[in-house]
Structures are given as structure tokens and as C-alpha cells.
């Protein structure tokens, strides 16, 4: 008998975790259509066509003894050949023109209650957010490619270039490694001071840049933010804020320990804002949280009772108007953070936090 490959072993382990959840809920099956759960269970498979959608066009039906993909006839060949190839998952095609066909297939295969993504989300997000060894290796590879693309994009940015052009260049650099970019945000000059989520616009860049990316490969996501000055250097107030936001970011990372709740980490981060002299800035944007198969698997709030576990990945993103800090890291079993979005070619500060990329062009 041929030995199962690493992807098949990962699938088997995750199916058993999901089945434990189903047994605890008294459910006979799960019909999972979301991109995040399909990618998680299949160790990187895609079930979507529309890039902007959260749901895919293939449903993964899991019961106590079986796992099968149900999809329309036009999607079945690609799903079978490219997304679940080598996995012990049957792909069943139903007529695209019969909207009732999916429900009929599920009822024919499951005798009992079937739960969907929404009903299982509270149980599944901690499972998705706890990354196995292979997932951590994939996340590290994604982080390495993303940071190099970020450095190359900002190092080649030029005055007069459009924000939209810069964002497209980053997307192209990532695409060369098969990486998607569900989030690319670009702000230059005065827009950095105005907006926390700056969608790139066709505006010429003059002096300063903020580039934010959420990059995806095989369903896993990393997030990071970087700043660059194309001429001169930041003024004293910007430097002060940049120093403060990096100290706050370091406080968030240090506070992220197994057994603590997200609300406890947030409280430590809020205290760091106050100690840095910016007590109210945390109210102007969420501060991040666990990351994995979503941009954030959960967002920390003052009432978040979710408990942190080892081997979870996190992306905290504190911001002070005009500045921000953001990286992705895995909380190792020994309690230390393994940051996956650091490029050795990017300038770093004395405390190890990323610095600002400074051009050699005079102001």
C-alpha cells in the first residue's frame, strides 16, 4: 500500500479534528463552502472562481466516514485535477442548471443534521489558527517571498509614480511566486495622515509612502506594513511617532503568550499606547489578532475571551496617525515569536524592529 504523502496526512489529521467537533455537536455532517475552510482542510486547495468572494463554488461534505467534494459539472475537472489531486477525496459533479442539485446530493449522502461554515465558525477558527509543522513551513515561505517583493517594490519606487502603479507592481512581484494579494493598500504623502485603509488611487507620489499587503498562498495569509521616503527623511514628529508605534508593536508581541486571552493582550497594548504618550490612538483602528486562513481569524477587543494557544500565528497592527507597525509571526511552543515577514535587506532599527526605507535623493 502506497504511503500517504504529507498533504494527505494533514488532511486526515484535520478531518479527525472536524469530526470530533461534529460528534460533540451531535451533527451527522458538515457542508463547508467557505474558501478558508476548504483551503484549511485540503492543505491548500482552492474552491473559488471570484477572487473577491468568501465562498467558493465547491462544497466539501464531511461525514463520520467520508469526505467528498460536490460541485457543478463545469468546476469538477479543475477541482479534481488541481485542487484535491492526490487526496482521498471524491469529486462529484452535479448539473449546473439545477440549483436544487447540491441540496439533493447532501440529503442523499447524509442521514441526519448537516451544519455549515457559519454554524461551525466558533469551533473551527481556533483549529484553523493552530498551525501544524507543514503549515508553519508554508507560512514562512510565503513570508519570505512577500517581504522580498515588498522590499523590491519600495526600493524601486520613484517620485511621480502613481499609487495604483506601485500597488500593481507589488501584485506582479507576488504573482511570480503564485501568491495572491487580497489586500494591497497604498498611501503617499498627505493620504498617510488621513486614512488607515488607503485603497491606492491614481495619485502621483511625491515624498513618502506607506505600503500594506495581505498576501495569500494556499489559503494561508501573512500581513505586513512598511514605510519609505523617496527624498529627504521624516521630520522629527514623524520619527517620534514611528518610534512610539514600534515600541507599542513590540509590547503586543511580548504580551502574546499561550493561555492569555485576546482581551488581556489588547489591554497590555492599550497600556503601551498610554506609556508612549498616545493614549487614545488605539481607538481609531483595530489592533489585529490571530491570522491564518483569514486576514484575521479573530480581532482582539476589550471583551475577547478567546484563549491564545501555542503554534498560532498573529499579526498585530498598532497605528498612530501617520505611522503604523505590522508583521506576522508564529508563537512557537517554547513561547518565543518566529517572525516570518522580516527581510534582511530592509533597514532595521537598533531594537530589531523594521525601519523606514530612505532613498539617497536629497529633499
Provide a descriptive summary of the structure in words.
With 363 residues, this protein is an alpha+beta fold. The protein has 2 domains: 6-129, Creatine Amidinohydrolase, Chain A, domain 1, CATH 3.40.350.10; 133-358, Alpha-Beta Complex (Creatine Amidinohydrolase). It is 36% helix and 21% strand. The chain is built from 10 helices and 15 strands. It has helices spanning 6-25, 35-41, 76-83, 101-109, 117-129, 133-155, 163-175, 190-194, 236-255, 262-275; strands at residues 29-34, 55-63, 67-72, 90-94, 114-116, 180-188, 208-217, 220-229, 288-291, 313-316, 319-320, 323-324, 329-331, 337-339, 357-358. Strands 4-3-2-1-5 form a 5-stranded mixed sheet, sandwiched between helices. Strands 6-7-8-15 form a 4-stranded mixed sheet. β7 (208-217) and β8 form a beta hairpin. α6 packs across α7 (163-175). The longest helix has 23 residues, at 133-155. It is globular. The model has no long low-confidence stretch (mean pLDDT 96).
Amino acid at each position: 500500500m502506497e504511503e500517504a504523502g504529507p498533504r494527505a496526512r494533514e488532511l486526515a489529521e484535520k478531518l479527525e479534528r472536524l469530526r470530533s467537533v461534529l460528534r460533540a455537536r451531535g451533527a451527522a455532517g458538515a457542508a463547508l463552502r467557505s474558501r478558508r475552510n476548504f483551503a484549511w482542510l485540503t492543505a491548500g486547495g482552492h474552491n473559488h472562481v471570484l477572487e473577491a468572494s468568501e465562498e467558493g463554488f465547491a462544497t466539501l461534505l464531511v461525514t463520520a466516514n467520508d469526505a467528498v467534494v460536490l460541485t457543478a459539472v463545469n468546476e469538477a475537472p479543475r477541482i479534481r485535477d488541481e485542487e484535491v489531486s492526490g487526496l482521498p477525496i471524491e469529486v462529484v459533479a452535479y448539473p449546473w442548471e439545477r440549483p436544487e442539485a447540491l441540496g439533493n446530493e447532501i440529503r442523499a449522502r447524509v442521514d441526519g443534521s448537516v451544519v455549515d461554515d457559519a454554524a461551525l465558525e466558533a469551533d473551527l477558527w481556533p483549529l484553523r489558527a493552530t498551525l501544524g509543522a507543514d503549515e508553519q513551513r508554508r507560512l514562512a515561505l510565503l513570508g519570505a517571498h512577500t517581504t522580498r517583493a515588498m522590499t523590491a517594490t519600495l526600493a524601486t519606487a520613484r517620485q511621480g509614480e502613481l499609487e495604483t502603479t506601485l500597488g500593481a507592481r507589488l501584485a506582479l512581484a507576488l504573482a511570480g511566486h503564485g501568491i495572491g494579494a487580497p489586500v494591497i493598500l497604498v498611501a503617499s504623502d498627505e493620504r498617510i495622515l488621513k486614512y488607515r485603509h488607503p485603497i491606492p488611487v491614481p495619485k502621483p507620489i511625491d515624498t513618502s509612502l506607506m505600503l500594506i499587503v495581505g498576501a495569500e498562498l494556499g489559503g494561508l495569509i501573512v500581513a505586513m506594513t512598511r514605510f519609505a521616503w523617496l527624498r529627504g527623511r521624516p521630520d522629527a514628529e514623524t520619527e517620534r511617532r514611528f518610534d512610539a508605534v514600534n515600541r507599542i508593536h513590540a509590547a503586543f508581541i511580548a504580551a502574546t503568550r499561550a493561555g492569555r486571552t485576546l482581551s488581556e493582550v489588547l489591554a497590555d497594548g492599550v497600556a503601551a499606547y498610554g506609556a508612549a504618550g498616545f493614549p487614545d490612538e488605539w481607538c481609531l483602528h483595530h489592533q489585529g489578532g490571530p491570522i491564518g486562513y483569514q486576514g484575521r481569524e479573530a480581532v482582539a477587543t476589550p471583551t475577547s475571551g478567546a484563549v491564545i494557544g501555542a503554534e498560532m500565528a498573529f499579526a498585530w497592527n498598532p497605528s498612530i496617525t501617520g505611522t503604523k507597525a505590522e508583521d506576522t509571526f508564529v508563537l512557537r511552543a517554547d513561547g518565543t515569536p518566529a517572525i516570518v515577514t522580516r527581510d534582511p535587506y530592509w533597514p532595521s532599527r537598533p531594537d530589531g524592529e523594521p525601519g523606514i526605507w530612505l532613498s539617497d535623493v536629497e529633499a
